[in-house]
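ENTRY TYPE: protein
CONTENTS: sequence, structure tokens:
***
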Amino acid sequence: MSAFENLERFGVEIADQIAAVTMRAPPVNAQDGIFRAEIVRIFDALHDMREVRAIVLTGEGRAFSAGADLRARPDVSEPGAFPRHNRLVRAAFDAVLECGKPVIAAVNGPAIGAGCVLALCCDILIAAEEAFLSMTEVDVGLAGGVRHVLRFFGQSDARLMIYSAKRITGPELLRMNAVSACVPRDRLMDEAMSIARAIAAKSPLAVEAAKRSFGLTEEMPLRDGYRYEQSQTVALSRTRDTKEAQRAFAEKRKPVFKGE
């Protein structure tokens, strides 16, 4: 069975080496166990699909994702319920973080709590003008998402988000350098697809190596991180795609990449 058959919470469309993954869990794309299991299934499959070079993740309807479905929270009195739940939550986010293909979050509307974290697990964020990110755990007596928020926001803004559940809208996110673009909603997918096409035109092996470097060197000291990146360059220099890229550059033509 295809990884994209019989999905209940998502739609997946693949064309021109780009996968458009759309959350379809009305009314607000809340995340439950089915949602999390499907996102793992989808992104694990996309990771291995050579015909896919970039991914766009967005939400159907008015929300990107309003976060965790509180009705699906585990029963604290049931032994083992929280470890199982937490493991699946981490797996859903890790599937996006660890996917070998760059993921562009097209934040079409509210991205709240776990929805905000899901957006922050993507490589590149663009937001509609009326969209916002918000961490609302304190509103329901919880606390979470700090480490993910710190990857995109400065210390003061991260604490403001977590402590106050402040909504940070598209224009503010752009000012804070937390998103790469803020556009009218009717232009959001065009902007996302334009970025995806630019990525898909590059050497897929080089792009995947760059994503590995971002993931692995984030917590490394500068010297160790750069040494790892140099090892990636050495490995890439032996590939056919790198030789093709260099020939095409010298010959002033568009390269033809085969992922080899």
Residues 19 and 55 are 5 Å apart (CA to CA). Strands lie at 10-15, 18-23, 54-59, 103-107, 110-112, 124-128, 132-134, 168-169, 181-183. The chain has two domains: 10-200, 204-251.
